[in-house]
Amino acid sequence: MASLVLGRDAGRALAGHHLLLLPEELPETVVLGLVRARHPDLVAVGGGTWRLGRWTVLRGPLLLDAAAAAGSAVPDPWRCAWVVECPVERGDPPLPGTTDREGLHRAFPDGLPVMAERRALDLALALARRLEGAVRVAPQPSGHGWALLRPDPLSWVDRTVLSPSWVAPEDAVDIARRAVPGVELAVEGEAWEGLTPEAVAALESTHDDDAPAPEAREALHRAADAHDAAVAAGQDVLDAYALVVPLPGGGVVQLEVAGVHEPPPVLHGVPWATSAVTYSAVWWPDDPAAAEHEVPAPDVRLARARAGAVVAALTDALADDVGGVVVDADGFPLA
After folding, report:
1. Is there a cis peptide before residue 77, judged by omega within 30 degrees of 0?
2. Phi and psi at residue 190, in whole multiples of 5°?
């Protein structure tokens, strides 16, 4: 149940925190369900407060009256807020002329958030993008005022199918072509020929005092050669491949198929999580810099929409065939 925050003074107590602003009618279970998809170890600590990690706490929902909203610099029409409590950790300012899809360059001109603060803001922005909300960024230490970030729900079109099943490249092409004509299997890799003599000489020319002695180095080489020979004599195992879809207006959609190094958080508790296969469909625009604008040009938005349709068709077709969970670019499951 939401807690009421009444009056300007109560609102001022929130002014120094980043605030996630969401529609009032949104059940908190929806918000917390998405948070758990990225933070399965989310812990309730009482008083409408949840701990995400060692440094970050989420508190809410709070319903602000008009005076409290004014005191916390929350603009109309927002009245429902979640407080994001995290340390202030800033890195270098954005490079002149650079931009990003979320507007962080605009909100943090003195230094971009890093580490725990960046992770907390990334989560808040992802929730705002998914739930059509916004993030009211706290004022800067230098005195820059508050900023309101409203991430475009369509700014990221990438999707991933997380499945217990592996599909051979030829079968994946067949599945994908039923949904998207023009799918191609990416060019096969080249056989590894080893380091060039120049690269070996460069590695061996170190003067580091901590470098191993010549006899130890020779032993390492012999061990590495023996390992390489054993692998080369074994059976070839395909552990990754990719399909590509050239787009009519430029750019490509790439579908990369591989195993997981670590189970994604959204698969927490799923029996096949450690052996999951990822089918990641990613849009690679012709002009990556143009796609990174907070408000991209109409032709970029059109290209992004077309790529998004291809991504959705590919991942839907694969999910129907291999099963599993489909997640968006923020790692949230799709219905």
Report:
1. yes
2. -100, 150
Q: What band does 201 get if pLDDT is binned at 50, 70 and 90?
A: low
Prediction pTM value: 0.84
Report CA 17 to chain centroid distance, whole Å: 23
49 in helix, strand or coil?
A: strand
C-alpha angle 94-114-161 in degrees, rounded to nearest 5: 100
Q: Are strands 159-163 and 325-328 parallel, antiparallel or unpaired?
A: antiparallel
DSSP lists the bridge partners of residue 69 as none
Q: Which of 154, 149, 155 is nearest to 75 (CA)?
A: 149
How many residues make up the chain in this entry?
335
State which amino acid sits at residue 114: V
CA distances from 66 to 71, 77, 79, 213 (A): 9, 10, 8, 72
Q: What is the dihedral of CA 295, 297, 301, 307, to 10 degrees?
A: -120
Task: Give the residue from 166, 14, 160, 4 showing the smallest Cα distance to 83.
Answer: 14
Give the residue from 15, 261, 280 showing the smallest Cα distance to 157: 280
- Of 31-45, 99-113, 207-221, 312-326, the range with the lowest mean pLDDT is 207-221
Q: What is the pLDDT of residue 98?
A: 87
With vertex at residue 75, the alpha carbon angle to CA 72 and CA 80, rounded to the nearest 5 degrees, is 75
